[in-house]
Structures are given as C-alpha cells and as structure tokens.
Write a structure and sequence with these properties.
With 175 residues, this protein is mainly alpha-helical. The chain has 3 domains: 59 residues, lambda repressor-like DNA-binding domains (434 Repressor (Amino-terminal Domain)), CATH 1.10.260; 40 residues; 37 residues. 71% of the residues lie in helices and 0% in strands. The chain is flat and about 75 Å long. One of its GO terms (molecular function) is DNA binding. InterPro entries: Cro/C1-type_HTH (IPR001387), Lambda_DNA-bd_dom_sf (IPR010982). Keywords: DNA-binding. This is DNA-binding transcriptional regulator, XRE-family HTH domain.
Length: 175
Amino acid sequence: MIGSILKSLRKKHGYGQDYVADRINVKRSTYANYERESREPSLALVIELAKLYDISTDYLLGHTASKNMPEDVQQLIEKYDKLSDEGRIRINNQIECELRVDALAAEKRLEKQRQGIEASRQAGKQYGRPKATITADWNDTYNQWKAGDITADDAVRKLGISKATLYRRARTEIK
C-alpha cells in the first residue's frame, strides 16, 4: 500500500524518483523498490517522506484517509496556540510529568518481566528456539567446507542445521 501512495504523491508533486531518493538520502533503485513494494522504508525514512510531502505518517502508511494530522490533534494544537505563555509552560510541565510517569511504569513492567524470565530460567524453562545440536561429524564437515571441498549449502544439509548456525558455529571455531 505504501508503494502506491509514494508513487501517487511523487507524481502529484511532479518529482522524479531521482529527486525523492536524493532528498531522503537513498539510492534511486532503493526508492524504486519502495514504490514497487519489494522493499519497505525504515521508520526514519517514513518520517522524512512525510516531511517531504507535508503529510502525516499515518496517511503515508495507509492508516488514515486524511493526508494531515487527525482532527483531535489539530484541535489540541489550536487550543494550545490560544494559551498564554504561562499556560503553555503549565501544559508542557504536565506533559513532561505524564511522560515521566509513563516511563516509570514501563520500567517497572520491564523489571517484572526480567524477574519472571530469570525465575523461569532458574526453574529450567527454555525460551526461544532450542539450541541446534551439533552432530558428531561436525569436525569432518567443517574441515571439508573450510577446505572448499563442499559448499555451505552442502554442509548445512549434511549437518541438518541452518546457514546462520553454521556461520555462528564457525566463528566460535576460529576463536
């Protein structure tokens, strides 16, 4: 969905792919992949694209039909603009306070999660994928692969592990 929105916006503004790619500091081919949806832009690039086209990130991501900020946010900004300097200071202080409270609550949740995970580990629970078991023929297969007698694909088939596991295990062998 983001690809069609990007293409539509680019054409509406009369920009070429080279221009947009240059503005967001990526290669033209990378930007073209965003429009074809064979690749997704990072969050930072989504923000840069939204700034370039003067639209909300929600619109760019297809979450809203409105190109600009939601109505309730716009109303809050209008109310904020009507405040005196003292009123703005109070609102800013209140927002800072709420952010600190939210951050502390998030920190407490993370700590409880850490404690729960640690208690589970001590009880013998395994999280994530189980570690790959390395077969007895690891050394022979590893040496064949390092000598170039077999490919990495052949080695992973023979050992029954993923390429990532092969490379990770090979790095530990080198150390």
